[in-house]
TrEMBL record:
Gene3D superfamilies found in the cross-reference section: P-loop containing nucleotide triphosphate hydrolases (3.40.50.300)
GO cellular component terms given for this protein: cytoplasm
Superkingdom per UniProt: Bacteria
One of the GO biological process terms: tRNA threonylcarbamoyladenosine modification
UniProt xrefs under InterPro entries: P-loop_NTPase, T6A_TsaE
UniProt similarity note: Belongs to the TsaE family.
Source organism per UniProt: Lactobacillus acetotolerans
Protein name, as recorded: tRNA threonylcarbamoyladenosine biosynthesis protein TsaE
DNA-binding found in the keyword field: no
Length: 158
């Protein structure tokens, strides 16, 4: 399933509907080039969860925790993960918490992830850095994630 996104506001809106329909222990994987909109989507998701502080890319910190949210958010970015080494991160601990885990650049650690997740692949429509047009491909794995995307898209299209 694919969605056309025409602005950063629409990307945040999609994130908000994903956040509104998320449940504890959900796992959201965000794939896309640098500047594709992964963090922008997470910002919309965080706002709907009640996070008031700025949501920034965790590129240099690897993990940012937002425990003050209605549903705790654990935002991870594995772009700078060296040699696929997860030894400094308790990934299983985060996945066991009753929160929402969002992972940017998950392709670097797919072998360490559970089989059930919602994956979004964000692609620019053109090569211009000024353009905000994107295509988001939604790939749910597992029954819960099929329902999650169905509920989120229903709200997104209203």
């Amino acid at each position: 399933m694919k969605l056309e996104i025409n602005s950063a506001a629409d990307m945040k809106k999609l994130g908000a509907f994903l956040g509104e329909t998320a449940k504890p222990h959900d796992l959201l994987l965000l794939n896309g080039d640098l500047g594709a909109g992964k963090t922008t989507m997470t910002q919309g998701l965080g706002r709907i969860l009640g996070i008031r502080r700025p949501i920034k890319s965790p590129t240099f910190t690897i993990v940012r925790e937002y425990r003050e949210a209605k549903l705790p958010l654990f935002h991870m970015d594995f772009y700078r993960l060296e040699n696929d080494d997860l030894s400094s991160i308790d990934l299983n601990g985060y996945l066991a918490e009753p929160g929402l885990v969002v992972i940017e650049w998950p392709q670097l650690i797919m072998k360490d992830l559970p089989d059930n997740y919602l994956q979004l692949i964000i692609t620019r429509v053109d090569d211009s850095w000024e353009s905000t047009k994107r295509v988001v491909e939604l790939k749910p794995k597992g029954e819960r994630n099929e329902k999650w995307i169905k509920d989120a898209l229903k709200k997104f299209r209203e």
